[in-house]
Amino acid sequence: MEFYVQQILNALQVGSVYALIALGYTMVYGILTMINFAHGDIFMVSTYLAFFTSTLILGLASGLNPIVVFIATLLTAMFGTALLAVVIERLAYKPLRTAPRISAVITALGVGLFLENFMVAFKPVGPAPRFLPHLIPAVNFNIGGVTVSTIQIVIIVVSALVMLLLDTIVRRTMVGTAMRAISWDKFTAPLMGVPVDRVISMTFALGASIAAVGGTLYGMAYTIDPYMGIRIGWWAFISAVVGGIGNIRGAMIGGFILGFVEIFTPVFLPSTYRDFVAFSLLLVLLIFRPTGILGRPMVQKV
Amino acid sequence: MKSAFWKRWGLLLILVTLFPLTIVLPQSGVINPYINLVLKYVGINIILTISLNLVNGYMGEFSVGHAGFMAIGAYAASILTVWVFPREAGAFFFPLALIAGGVAAGIAGLGIAVPAFRTRGDYLAIVTLAFNMIIKSVLENMEVIGGPRGFMGMEKLTSLAWVYVCVIVTLFLARNYVFSNFGRGVLSLREDEIASGLVSVNTRQVKVLTFVFSAFLAGIAGGLFAHELQFINPRSFTILKSTDMLVMVYLGGIGSLGGSVLGATVYTLVLEGLRTVLQQFGISQEWRLVVAPLMLILLMIFRPRGIMGLREFRFLTPRDDQPEMLAEQRKRIKAASRIDEVSP
Predict the structure, then answer these.
(1) How far is CA B292 from the centre of its chain?
(2) Is B261 exposed, middle or buried (0-12, 13-18, 19+ CB in 10 A)?
(3) For B127-164, what is each residue's pLDDT tens digit?
């Protein structure tokens, strides 16, 4: 019993990171119907931003309160990543908005690979894996045979807060309404005075900063390297598709489903089968329910 | 009369005279092993580019997982030459192994295409991607064929002559495919799927068959690749390989065989050239990998159709489709309709 509770806790930890990244995929798809394949690598860049910021802060002033350092790192990573995403959107995606949809997807694939290979070739980063400095003192609690670490609690709680915040932003604020309007009908929305370009940039910024939260949290628990954008990014992407791409709550559910797949596959199969299970799940789902768990079927009009 | 003869047979003659050169030149040492290797890569890349161009360029669908088909072709052909066919006669069975690899990839393509084309357009991208990842994962988990360590023991059967023959046959098949009646269906699908369905193009059949043909070609290229390197492992067939193929297609030009040849040649030579350039300036070789994605992004923004987008070289166009033939046909139709107008 304890074993399963422990595994569920671990699954929640991994799943919340996937969910945070999946949100970025799903928001961009919802608004532009474009699969932003670069998002996983934007997440990767965000972990490096967190790495450099936290190392810098701790190097300059080591006596600071860990909470302050954590929040400063988080905010810097969020801001930097949002800026990167907006720049990418302006330079690479905006010129293609009227081009066939395939062009934008290929460009996104190119941007992702570019970020990845650039980070490998870029000397201060390089291909070697790295550890984030300890932002929060890691303490393990033992509750009835289940080990809970402070890092685990922080990851799950912060992710839950961010997701709640995002859900509120999308449902209650002006920006959120504008986003939903564009995803509902991108031809009528500008006629109603919705500034499309600005809202799209904001969507990218929002998605990227949420990925940066995921990146910082991920870096606290695991090692980081320039290639992790591929694996984590693809898993998050599957989460978004499983939940129903374009649907924000679907992305959250999908993230947790993939978290469970990741943690519980090694229980039944050798752990090298993880990718196989995840992608087979995707394939089976696409064949039997192409719109995902919460997605609405799209009707093709002539 | 003479010019008519050259028009009909000239291309064939040139191709046939080139063939002995592909055997003699590497063996006599006129071209050194490095150039020989680069030429072979150019050939393999041409086949891959044509394969992907059929789906992405001519049909207007979007596959990003062709490295998966290449992997199947490579493994199937290698297993045959290493374990099944007698070693002494390996060279004679080589074409058979290549074709078997192509067929295996084609069957996998069929398995993917049938369910994939039931769903919406951009989902093919996701399905093929998932397929690529699954193939890699399966290969890594199959200990029988080496798992993550890879598979080896093939002899170096891929010679320049074989690559040459494969490229010519591929060009011939692909040309006849896209200029056939069936091929017009493929093209119409790119322009407007619903409209082509209305003029009784069997859209599902066209999509599935084109995809299978494309997978077959990728499998052939995989077999050639495996017997050149004499060592394959699952990591050679990741999404990176698929991206290389995408760059070559969009560099050369969508919907063009000449473009595919150009794109593959230019891309391979540029990347090889960069190797020496970077060495000269003392920059680390890792920057070479940054170039391909950057090229892809810039191409998509500034010239999404590539060098030869939707155009074709004269010598790759069947005679009935060459501009003056089409003009003559149009004139004839006009004349015929005029007679009809007068006669009643």
Answers:
(1) 18
(2) buried
(3) 888 899 899 989 998 888 888 888 988 888 888 999 99
Mean pLDDT across the stretch A105-122? 89
Domain boundaries along the sequence of chain A? 2-239
> Environment class of residue B47 by beta-carbon count within 10 Å: exposed (0-12), middle (13-18) or buried (19+)?
buried
Check if A286 contacts B (Cβ < 8 Å). Answer: yes
Give the DSSP H/E element, type plus range, for residue A164: helix A150-172
Cα–Cα distances in angstroms (integers) from residue B225 to residues B45, B222, B332, in the given order: 9, 5, 49
**Residue B83 DSSP one-character state:** I
CA dist A232 and A211 (Å) reads 11
Helix B33-52 vs helix B257-281: crossing angle, to nearest 10: 140
Where residue B223 falls among pLDDT bands split at 50, 70, 90? very high
This complex has an ipTM of 0.83
Angstrom distance (rounded) from CA A209 to CA A215: 9
| pLDDT tens, residue by residue, A54-92 | 989 888 877 778 888 889 999 999 999 999 999 999 999
Among candidates A248, A258, A253, which has minimal Cα distance to A282? A258
* From B125, B284, B286, residue closest to A105, measured CB to CB: B125
**Is there a contact between B64 and B214 (Cβ–Cβ < 8 Å)?**
no
In chain B, count H helices and then E strands: 13, 2
Q: Which two tokens stand for residue B73?
A: 């072709």
Q: In terms of CA atoms, which chain B residue is nearest residue A282?
A: B130
Are residues B243 and A113, on separate chains, in Cβ contact within 8 Å?
A: yes
